[in-house]
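I hope you will forgive my troubling you with a question about protein structure. I am sending you one protein, given as its amino acid sequence and as whole-number tokens for its backbone shapes. Thank you for your consideration; the sequence and its tokens are set out here:
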Amino acid sequence: MRSLQQDIVPTIVSENRRLMNETSRDRAVRQRMNEAQAIVKSRNYDEAIRQYDLIANEHGSVAARNNAELLRLAVSSASAARARMDELYTDTGGVAGRAVSNAYQLCDGFAVSNGYYVIYPNVGGIFKGIHDTADDGKHPVTFRFRTLSALRSIAEKIAIHIEGLADTDGYIDEFICTEGKIEHTNSLYIPGRLFTIYGHKIKVEGDESVTGMFLVDIEDPSKCVKLDDINQNDPSAIRGLIPDTGDLGSCRLEIRTHYSGTTGRPLKDIRIITSPFILERG
């Protein structure tokens, strides 16, 4: 059986196991939890269990749920107690409680790991200096994922089935416009906001006078705006800032490049890659 002391904050000792403090900011819930703990101290365990069950059912308190189970453990037979504790640690409520705790840790700037992978927060964009202030639009907070050896070991057993030949030409897969903590995928472009393009062989390469990334009006292709404020230009990802687009309306994303996919061997003719989706002005 798992050690309770890994998950439960010590407050009251009962048969060498400790009850959990309520972490909710709701004063009414905290008051009811204090009253239930007073009942425990009076050794009226049946009434304490009833009160903890009521708090758990009415307010979804993880602490009350844990405490009710611990008290049942103290007053029931050893076999019944083990069965109840097994239920407690396979209950989705316990998983949900840990998930909420992990979410708060991430938002406080800490990495979270479960032994198979690590999720950690990341601040995007570019700061102009140590005195530059953070801006939700220019410096969005995102979360990144890193695998650990346990997951990589499992991944080694993945079977790959070939179903056909992939497109050897370049293509645009996603256009993500970041607005604060919201990401608009293949839908909106918002002047002044950061964008990320994902695809294949999309790196902009060649004479800047004829190559680049453009938002091209679908009604009048002669109307286009070049996206030239770029801070990442890779074969599979391009990131930058959307400029003022004037009166541009619905448009497609277009990349014009000499990039062939092989370093030092540019294409003789410009490759034009057009998005399969239409972007609307946000």
User: Anything to note?
Assistant: The chain has three domains: 4-97, 111-155, 171-281. Residues 177 and 282 are 10 Å apart (CA to CA). The helical segments are 27-41, 45-59, 62-75, 78-90, 92-107, 149-155.
